[in-house]
Amino acid sequence: MDLATIIGIIVGAAVIAFAIFMGGSFGAFLDVPSVFIVIGGGFAATLIRFPLAGVGQALITGGRVAFTHKKVEPRELIERIAEMSDVVRRQGPLGLEGIELDEANLRKGAQYIADGYDGAFIRETMELERDQYLNRLSEGQRVFKSLGDAAPAFGMIGTLVGLVQMLGNMDDPSAIGPAMAVALLTTLYGAVIANLVCLPISDKLLAKFDVEEVNQTLIIDGIMSIRDGKSPNLIREMLVAYLPENQREAVDEPQLRAA
Questions:
Q1: Which of 7, 45, 188, 193 shows the smallest number of beta carbons within 10 Å?
Q2: Whole domain around residue 170: which residue ranges?
Q3: In a domain, 112, yes or no
């Protein structure tokens, strides 16, 4: 579970709620027409830009990455791949069937090796899986970015609607208040939805894309190295190139202690 997303949304909502509570009642900040304009309009604009199935998949992907995803460090993958290589050298390819692996593509690659598939088939299939996964992340990022852009825009549209209603009913004081509420609250709702939910999730998906592009390519090269019978130490030396300079010593230290 990604606690950063949950904590961020809760803290942000709490700050806004505290400011509302200190200045008046919550009821004054609730307006159903404003919600319809912002949320309904934002989704409508997003549906125009993307296929319906793509929007649904993006919401699922965004929710999974933002709230339930567990970050996988590249150095952990390197050590896991090195352990798999050691198992293959000691027990043969079938020894991989007894290893529990959390990462889906790594688990699939291990099964391919255990089943004795050709190296070209393994690489082609795993690269296709990687590309499809990255495409889903990219699509999710673009959909949430679209929602984040559309929400403030429809907040402004709601403001204009409220102002038109207010100016059209200046002779009726009882109608000025509701019209002013629509005018102001749609802008508030649009800003909150965009800046507290949609745009942060979009940025998180973008960051996830960059991390997963490295991780998945690392996994493919690691699986192919195991398939080719390379030693665990050689695999570490090859895969450590995927790490930033400040993380490479953490992978090299176990080797030095073992030597």
A1: 7
A2: 31-75+119-258
A3: no
CB 105 within 8 A of CB 129: yes
Q: How confident is the prediction for the chain on average, in pLDDT?
A: 85
- 243 lies in a domain? yes
Largest CA distance in the chain: 89
Q: How far is C-alpha 168 from the geometric centre of its chain's CA atoms?
A: 45
SS3 231: coil
Two tokens, residue 142 = 């673009």
Q: Is residue 41 in some structural domain?
A: yes
Backbone angles phi, psi at 244, to 5 degrees: -65, 160
How many domains does the chain divide into? Answer: 1
Is 108 contained in some domain?
no
Which of the residues in the chain have pLDDT under 70? 1-2, 69, 246-259
Are 38 and 186 within 8 A, CB to CB? yes
SS3 200: helix
202-224: burial string, b at 16+ Cβ within 10 Å, e else: bebbbebbeebeebbebbbbbbb
